[in-house]
């Protein structure tokens, strides 16, 4: 297996560092438009693991905004598998480049949606991921696999949902993905600061778009952003967090392979974050279309969302200033294998102090990084195999979770926590 990683930002850097602890591949190319950033990742691996491990890693410069560049780099190094770890706006060229190069593909976030023109808060337009699923037959005919949405959420959440269907439940009423944390970020003086722990570009996209919900008797529909607030009790000391509806890939993915009456995604954003996002939207600073701005050097074209991302701290740099834990999980309700009511929260928690000690990567990006590497190892072993555009819910979840938690695997523990079937939620 010869792997090309596109993007050496926070998540990409962590993916390479996780991969450096495994040996199932022949070469691992770390590429980025900023060659110095790719070099820095490879140098960290060399310093941490020595030359024998680092000899498998190569830094490369790649402008992923052009598919031809992806094709050229992949063919020059006889790449067999590509990991897309950059923002979704580059997805079309990377996805196309991987197909043209005739290689297998993995991403962490899927193609962006387009709201319904006439009724965006009731009807879906182009759903998140639709542009990729539309090409599934082409990938299948080529005999190549595009494994989409293989991060933590989506990704591990989809694995949990598939495991619940196959091993825990006979009937599923609802799959509700829940993402929450108790993270705090402080400045050099110890003052709490606003600094998103994940790509603000992606966060704006998913939080301000109309949230997608699925119901079996209704199909997919949309709601208002930040709708249906509820208090969810997250485990391992994180505690009570208010969660709201947010657009996310799982809702578009899971109904394709899992029988559930309802699928939803709720994010524990917090009142301050929601307020800031609403202000950005009101001021038009969430827009991606460039606007003309006067400067001392003359007029320039600037995307408002890119400007917001530029003035905020790089999420990859926040680890030393961050404390707390983040939780990725799925609450599944329905009937167990004996027909009794059941509610189970399947989850994985990442502690920032631990991920910083092991990878010098903050916990939000580290929890994402494990999953594409685990999936690649299962593909290398022939355990996960297929062709077409498929999400992780299309594959048996048990081998993934066994490898994830094994002491000779990735040593990342996951929990299936039983909740009261009636209602594990407290509404404010």
Structure description:
- About 35% of the residues lie in helices and about 25% in strands.
- The protein has about 425 residues and is of the alpha/beta class.
- It folds into two domains: about 1-105, Rossmann fold, CATH 3.40.50; about 155-365 and about 395-425, Dihydrodipicolinate Reductase, domain 2.
- Strands 7, 9, 10, 11, 12, 13, 17, 18, 20 and 21 form a ten-stranded mixed sheet that branches. A seven-stranded parallel sheet has the order 3-2-1-4-5-6-19, with helices on both faces.
- A hairpin with a 4-residue loop joins strand 11 (about 230-235) and strand 12 (about 240-245).
- Helix 1 crosses helix 14 (about 365-380), helix 8 packs across helix 15 (about 395-405) and helix 13 (about 350-360) crosses helix 14.
- The longest helix has 18 residues, at about 365-380.
- Mean pLDDT is about 90; it is low at about 425-428.
What would you report as the Rg, rounded to the nearest angstrom? Answer: 21 Å
Overall helicity: 25-40%
Query: How much of the sequence is in beta strands?
Result: 25-35%
Number of domains: 2
What fold name stands as the CATH topology of the largest domain? Dihydrodipicolinate Reductase, domain 2
Class computed from helices, strands and strand pairing: alpha/beta
Q: Average pLDDT, to the nearest integer?
A: 92
The strand count comes to: 21
State the end-to-end distance: 50 Å
Please name the fourth-level CATH homologous superfamily of the largest domain: Dihydrodipicolinate Reductase, domain 2
